[in-house]
Amino acid sequence: MSDRNSTTRVAAFYQFVALPDYRELREPLRAFCAGLHLKGSVLLAQEGINGTVAGAPEAIDPFASELAHGNMFGGRLDNLELKFSTAEAMPFGRLKVRLKKEIVTLGDETADPARQVGTYVDAAEWNALIATPDTLLLDTRNAFEVAMGTFEGAVDPGIKSFGQFKDFAAASLDPARHRRIAMFCTGGIRCEKASAHLLARGFAEVYHLKGGILKYLEEVPETESRWRGECFVFDERVALGHGLRERGLREQELGHGRDE
């Protein structure tokens, strides 16, 4: 999606990687973002980094370069999942850099995406995978997100927060019956944790959409899409459609809380 007609660029990013010094990284990262006049939210934990920031187009490039190649992280973010989009107005009110136990909360210490995750499937290959017989298509997002849009035929776990996914899996998924699972989420991070959890429980084939729904909406033509509805995003744009176009929904119309 072009940045030419927008004054605000948005970068969403994450990587599971060992950051034993994550507490010491907080202030340098906050100061660097503030110096570029960025706003948004960044989470740091021993297991990695997760965030979305927005600012002037000329500020986002040096920010992304520092994460991937700068001295702050010392080259550790060498597999950073990074997606860009635009906003008609600044989608965040302030800058927050927070320390967390997990960068996405599941509450399962056996789920370690830095050690093992499911098989990544690029957006261009996703339609073929989910059309394969005996494939369980699983939406790992929260119920209010699913209600706004999902892939045709996807199972809704009916959860209020991602931390409940492991309970859903224990009650509803069986390695003997569900031998091939294809899962998806907004940007890919929840699927990293969810796939690691299922693999640890003995599921044989677990696939997940690389880059998440956002990458699919960016790359797959609407005429070929299996997506229906809008994709909820955790900022003031609220929802995006194909081409990552803003849908212009008002958050107060949704009547829900947010789950990071």
Automatic annotation (TrEMBL):
CDD domains xref list: RHOD_YceA
Reactions this protein catalyses: uridine(34) in tRNA + AH2 + O2 = 5-hydroxyuridine(34) in tRNA + A + H2O
InterPro entries reported in the protein's UniProt record: Rhodanese-like_dom, Rhodanese-like_dom_sf, TrhO, TRHO_N
Keywords: Oxidoreductase, tRNA processing
Entry keyword tRNA processing: yes
Domain Rhodanese: 131-225
EC number in record: 1.14.-.-
Name of one Pfam family that matches: Rhodanese
Record-stated family: Belongs to the TrhO family.
PANTHER family: RHODANESE-LIKE DOMAIN-CONTAINING PROTEIN 7-RELATED (PTHR43268:SF3), THIOSULFATE SULFURTRANSFERASE/RHODANESE-LIKE DOMAIN-CONTAINING PROTEIN 2 (PTHR43268)
Function: Catalyzes oxygen-dependent 5-hydroxyuridine (ho5U) modification at position 34 in tRNAs.
Protein name per its UniProtKB record: tRNA uridine(34) hydroxylase
Source organism of this protein record: Bradyrhizobium vignae
